[in-house]
Amino acid sequence: MDSSVGVVVPRQMHFTEPLALRSGHSIADYDLTVETYGTLNASRTNAVLVCHALNASHHVAGHYADAPSNVGWWDNMVGPGKPLDTNRFFVIGVNNLGSCFGSTGPMSPDPATGRPYGARFPVVTVEDWVNAQARVADSFGIERFAAVMGGSLGGMQALAWSILYPDRVGHCIVVASTPKLSAQNIAFNEVARSAILSDPDFHGGDYYAYNVKPRRGLRVARMIGHITYLSDDDMAAKFGRALRRAEGADDDYNFNFDIEFEVESYLRYQGDKFADFFDANTYLLITRALDYFDPAKRFNGDLTAALAHTRANYLVVSFSTDWRFAPARSREIVKALLDHKRSVTYGEIDAPHGHDAFLLDDPRYHNLVRAYYERIAAEVGV
Question: What residues sit in the active site (predicted)?
Answer without folding.
Answer: 152, 322, 355
